[in-house]
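Pasting as-is:
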Amino acid sequence: MMENGGTRTGRRLNAVKLPEKLCHVGVYLFLLVFVALYVFYAPEGYIQIATNKYRFYRMMALITGGIMVPLIALRYLFAFRKRNRDEKKLRISETDIFMFLFLVANCVSFFLTPYKEEALWGTSGWYMGFAMMLSFIGIYFLISRFYDGKIDLLVPIMAVTAAVFLWGLLNRFSVYPVDMQYDNVIFISSIGNINWFCGYWSVFFAIGIVLYIIAEDRRLRIIAAVHSVLSLAMGVVEGSDSAYISIGVVFFFLFLLSFRKTVYMKRWLDECIFLCGSCQVMRVIAAFGPEEIEPEYIGWTGLNLVTPTIGLMLGNLTLIALIIFILFRLLLERADKRYGDRGMEQGQWIKSILWLKYTVVGLVASSAIVYLTLLIINTRTPGILGPLSRYKVFLFDGSWGSNRGTTWRDGLAVYQTLPLRERLFGVGQDCFSIYGYSVPELAARFEEEWPTSRLTNAHNECITFLVDLGVFGLITFVGIFAGGFKRLIVKGAKEPLCYVFAVSLLSYFFHNQFSFSQVVNIPYIFLMFGLAENLMRKMDDGLEKQRKRQSF
């Protein structure tokens, strides 16, 4: 009788766990399609690539929702029937709260907008509508709650992104391993437009950089080093100047982080050497390519797209920096041995030179203040800076920052025309364009400034959300990043893997102040949010179990 009862109990337990196991399987299937297949989907080459990717994403999201929502409902229903005390504990993090408020902001904006048809899936070619935002939020909650962590995702993600980056790097040298219809210099890899590619790159390029710095396993560091060199080389010659914003922010943050351990500082210097070395390798390879016809490209014969910034990075500046970083790396190695011989705590002597950290922070802050001051002065009184006034970077007009001066100004102009309700809750997700062109004075201004194209966003994610979702939506969106980043930094002291996700959020956020949301970047940052939250929840579970053991 006992055996039969035990068998029945075991069967009930298995039945209870079945929906949860199916949820885990569903997450892995979704991740396979999302990470490894979606990014390569381009059935017509570069023709309508944004629309084709959107259709693929929408189908993937609808199928995932149709399967996962019933499974998740069953999972919680069975857990409730089991009366599991742990299930009754509602664990909500700061990121969860901001994510929920972001959902509310989207719902309110969609309810109030008069452009519901446009707002549902988004304007043609961009597709950043209400339903898409719901799917992004769904990705976060799906991964944060139902990814079981049994298969490490970072190495597979690095493998996929390395393939995408290598493909793009070859395209930059006019090598096309895959026949893509309508290929030209502004389209690369399986992503398409260079700005779209840069958005995808900004999410993932730093994974290898951070893993190289924090990883103890030698094999993982080798993989991370290869990914670092490839992603940095791609970022340098990719063609979008916003990539340099991401690189600068990431390297500055990791410099501050490197003062936690001497080995971190050594590896940070290694990454600086990788960056400058990549620039010089690209320089050498380009020198052996066929000469371009356009006179401005002579001297950069191998690259098929050159900007002033690329010319600077592939020049003597990074060669000098390479030599300096190599010298610093050798000096640091000697100092490490010297301090070790004196019996100082292993790897901690770097904290004795914290003055260097604060000096660099002071110099960066001072440089930013000086630049902004000069920018404001020269903008108000053009030419007052003398020879410096010749450089566009010191004049905030329409052409500043690859025309970001114009798009930012236009975005703020749209916001200023809004009544109070729309200022609070926006005109509707991805309705920037349809509203802007409905206002006669704005339409006339846009048509004059953009005669051959349609202005669909401010090329600044925060300004765009300010128009689409209002002040409330912008605050919740920024709160997701600020809250998530803060928590990851705190928990990174115990689990350095948190820094991988913190840096990804940092890179994407700063990059998109000069760019925009689209179907191959913003879904992936919500994936990274989900993985980050999942990691932090597991850390909290571990602490809870430890407390329970100690209580006995």
